[in-house]
Hints:
Keywords (chain A): Amino-acid transport, Cell inner membrane, Cell membrane, Membrane, Transmembrane, Transmembrane helix, Transport
Radius of gyration of chain B: 17 Å
Distance between the termini of chain A: 52 Å
Strand content of chain B: 25-35%
Oligomer: heterodimer
Largest sheet of chain A: 2 strands, antiparallel
Number of domains of chain B: 2
Order of helices and strands of chain B: EEEHEEHEHHHEHEHEEHH
InterPro entries (chain A): ABC_transp_permease, BCAA_transport_permease
Number of helices of chain A: 12
Structural class of chain B: alpha/beta
Strand content of chain A: under 5%
CATH superfamily of the largest domain in chain B: P-loop containing nucleotide triphosphate hydrolases
CATH architecture of the largest domain in chain B: 3-Layer(aba) Sandwich
Shape of chain A: globular
Strand order of the largest sheet of chain B: 6-7-8-3-9-10
Family (chain A): Belongs to the binding-protein-dependent transport system permease family. LivHM subfamily.
CATH class of chain A: Mainly Alpha
Structural class of chain A: mainly alpha
Main location (chain A): membrane
Protein name (chain A): Branched-chain amino acid transport system permease protein
Helix content of chain B: 25-40%
Distance between the termini of chain B: 34 Å
CATH topology of the largest domain in chain B: Rossmann fold
Number of helices of chain B: 9
Amino acid sequence: MLVQQIVNAISLGGVYALLALGLAIVFSIVGLINFAHGELMTIAGYCLLGALLMGVPLAVAVVVAVASAAIAAVLMEQIAFKPMRGASVTSLLITSFAVSSLLKVLFQNGISARPQPIAMPSWMTGAFQFGHVSIGVGPLLSIAGSALALIALELFLRRTVMGTAMRAAAEDFNVVRLMGIPAGRIIATAFLLSGLLAGLASLLWIAQRASVDPLMGFTPVLKAFIATVVGGLGSLPGAVVGGLLLGVIEVALQSALPPDVAPYRDAIVLSGVILVLLFRPDGVIPAARAQRS
Amino acid sequence: MLSVRSLQVRYGEVEAVRCVDLTVGRGEIVALVGANGAGKSTTLAAISGLVRPAGGSVTFQGEDVTGLAPELIARRGVALTPEGRRVFASLTTAENLMLGGAVHLGRAALKEREAEMLDLFPILRRYHRIKAGNLSGGEQQMLAIARSLMSKPKLLLLDEPSLGLAPQIIDKVFDLIADLRRSGLTILLVEQNVALALEIADSAVVIANGNVALSGSAAELATSDLVRQAYLGI
């Protein structure tokens, strides 16, 4: 039972961590909290559904879904945020709300407001049996997916020129431009990465719920936003720690709380968040930033 | 090589630079001096593209570069070492250097240039894998200059290289600037330490309240009464 709960906690936390990372990458470079991040998840979900309905094999549909979220993220930046470059943080925030609402309405009217079922292959809903412990294939897959994504991102940020430039831009964007590195390319890469992470998170999310709906991105991205704040806004390790922490706390409360207190789970989690921020206002692992002009 | 004409820069209502003219010839060191807030750093920011001028023109190697994006100006061979060093604190010394030349040089040339920089600044060699934030002020200044030089610039804009450094370190930095000029680099130097700047420069421009107050050869200015009274305290 305990092992099962730990697996569930890490698997949920992993999804939050991927989403939180996407938010943090964009925030660290552009200073924008992208509230339309959830819609990237939704786009990935509908593309997965569409691809499967067209009879595409699951493996290909998965690639299509993740790629569509990444492309959508880049387009979002080019169409909605690029014209706003140099605008205040508030204007950017409102723009991202607008993009989010617009896409939601498009999904509701263009597709359907009702959840669409996605049939997951039977092996994914099965479970491994280790002695007395049975562990779901879904959660394990989710942990593996998150871990691989984290490793790939870390390698990209540490080993490539673009990754290094992105870490530098999070500290001091203007100086990166003074080195001749194009600002537009760094921003586009940040959105691309956030889209890839949102697409992957969406798949892991859907794998355990087996349906897509226009508002599916809202709750997980709200949680991811809380995770980035707890971890330290703009800090990538903070986003991962915050996401995992939130997942663990949610699952722990879910299983530990007596049934009559269970509805207050989110209230308890958020009180914990306030408590963390009272003692560490910059988050658990604050972002390093020299100056921003 | 660089020619700035009637440059004007505004930050909202504030006119930081009203009318600045200056010319830097190939292989020269030109010093831009003046009091705090006179508009020196803003002039460099406008030349490098970090701020868009409200008026006037910047010409580099015969081409108009007024108002171009900083990355485009950098690619033409202008490097700015900003005030306060602004090294990437969370990146290693090696990563800072690499970024300096990343878009200008190929992989092999980048390694070669890095080796040259480590020869020029031997002190950086032992901090290769250490985060730049852990270096001392003087070491960070060396790193900031080396990072700018990684792109093999034709013109180096140096903003307050002596700021916040101990006197012996300042001497080292200025010896280095003199060496760089001997190697053929053209330098536009902004400096609050006027005596030091005039010692090393060929010519100088004195800015006050966003206007050129005086300009001429460094030797001339060093003996001018105005400069002696206002900036050298003699």
